[in-house]
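Thread title: Can someone regenerate the structure for this chain?

I was given the following input by a collaborator and told the matching structure tokens would be attached. They weren't. Posting the sequence so someone can regenerate them.
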Amino acid sequence: MLFDSKWITYKTGEYKTADDKYGNPSPYFRRSFKTAGRVKKATLFASALGVFKIYLNGEPLSGEYLSPGWVDYSKKLPFIRYDITERLLESNAIGVVLGDGWAVGHIGSNYTFKRNGYSDRIEFTALIRIEYENGELEEISSDKTWRASSGAIRRSDIYMGEFVDNRLCLGNFSQAAYDDSAWDYAEETVFKFSRNLYLEETIVPPIVVKHTFKPVLVSQENGTFIYDVTQNIAGVLSCVFRGKCGARVVIRHGELLENGKLYTENLRKAEATDTYILSGNGDEYFRPLFTYHGFRYAEITVEGEAEIVDITAEAMYSDLKSTGSFECSDPIVSKIYQNALWGQRDNFLNVPTDCPQRDERLGWTGDAQIFCQSAMYNMDCRKFYEKYLADVRDAQLGNGVIPAAAPLPHVGFYDYTGHDAAAGWCEAIAEIPYCHYKMYADKKIIRDNLPALKKLLDYYETESPDYIRSGGKGYGDWVSLGTPTDLGVVSTLYYAKAAELASKMCGIIGDFEEEYYSKLYLRIKDAFRARYISEDGRIKSDTQTAYVMAYKFGIIDKNEAEANLVRKFDENGGHLTTGFLGIKFLLPTLCDIGRSDIAYRIITDTSYPGWGYSVVNGATTIWEHWDSYTHENGIRKGMNSFNHYSFGSCSEWMFEYCLGIRPDIENPGFKKVKLAPYMDITGKITSASGYYDTDYGRISVSWQKNGDCFEYKASVPQQISCEFVFRGMETVESSNSGTSYFFKLKKSE
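Best answer:
Regenerated them for you:
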């Protein structure tokens, strides 16, 4: 722990119960102080049970929101360190306003959607450490001398929205000369989780505004305005209003319009509504601080005499550096990539959530592991996933089971799911660290997570004496079409995969149990084949997902996969049926077995079901269901999100198979790259290009079809060794000049 300060709170209303609909007004704190000489270095440390916005000397301390983020607050609490050296004056003041956030506000999913997920009150702690040039050290801690008040933010909730009454505005309360004589004093408190808690400096880049849009007015009727942001985003509207004191503006958010009206049924209990009451003092700026919404459309209703002067949509997510890009000659496929990228942006807010709009927004482990490789191509996710894997370890149960979501909400969520050891969800503790190491070459990620994986496998062994997992009540190949894949098949396949990755991870760090897990994998493989594969080579339930997973997990060979997978496509009219788990492996498997023609047919297809169908029907993000919307049935009722990234795991295929950029596990972190593209011999896509930024520089690739030949170009940093593999192609011409390579290829006879 880098600082020791007191915790403070301020009661702005009677503490709410878990079933209350709304919370209390936000507490505001301030503290004025003077410097005692020339400052060498000044640092502010801050943490909260809740979320905060900090101001210093009249200005926001930073452009971040919803800090310090979301963890299991009973296990640890993140703090943030700010360098304020250049911000200090002779007379200073710090001001802080807090919101309910994940700790006190609503959290959960559907039936478990309740308040007080971790606490019924907001608490805050801070320390200002000033090092003077003369060697003296001064520390100013949050304590009962800090002043406290309520103000304009009357309630805030990530899911329900924010209510601001600007008639109660406190003014610029972080200025040193501000008169706080009417304010109360803060209350020092014994922090709720003191016995178990430790403060840990956050490693994840903060949530910031990354993109802005100017919404387009769609309709206007009787004081209600509907705007189209043109992109489904996670964020808020930043507005300027002008009008009389007491006029009210209500902003509702949704992903779709239905018959010209805002569609909100899929939000379930999340109100996603921001309200602002005008003070009547000229142009008034409103930007909610402690909420965000998943939306493309906004309905703004003006009650009373007021006008909308300006409106901007702000898309926000963790400030991760962009590292990859893909585009091709087919605008549909290029749009699929962009939709998946936006799905990542909209769901990477401190935790990899499933969706940003409804009463859920949880860090589902299955969604996270199936998309992690795609995510790491798009952005530098090393710190993001290190933090999330710590959340996963914190959520691990005593018996070794990895719950379906992390951080684990303290609102009966696990009891509600009833899915003990859900296959494909538990294995996030294996897949994400392995991909992380492959992309970033940091063995610490293996050392940190291998013990938790071993504990999970210990649990599997106790419940599976014959090496077959029953599947229990798992999710299976979630939201697949047609016949579901048998849960025992899915569970045993992932058991094998977990054992295989455990063996590989042991090998990476020199753990003595490498051979043990390798033999365990082989036993599971033999047991699976004996139990689930018939004499004619068919896997029980006989689904596309069963075959692509069994092939990618090394359970069946290329010939077995090809015979059955091609048959399944023929039986289904050439269409896919895979759900969240199977979709990651579908296009890669088709290429591996020599049927890249089917892969390119699927990715370019605009008929239902498939990615292209969503694009031609206006999608700007990846849908949760293949039938989230269809011409025949309209909007799918019940559980339905238009912003889920799981089906966007096809992005991984775009980088590794279409462009051919592949990391080498033996030379991780792109010390070596294998360039092994599968170019489209059917001619549906005639060119593709993209890049991935490694720690050594940018790997750029492009190819195009020119007559009967393909021209493949690559630029690879000098520090990276590279290997070229062109399956089914023969080289007509080649050249290289230092770091640039050129190949002219044609299909082998």
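The chain has 15 helices and 39 strands.
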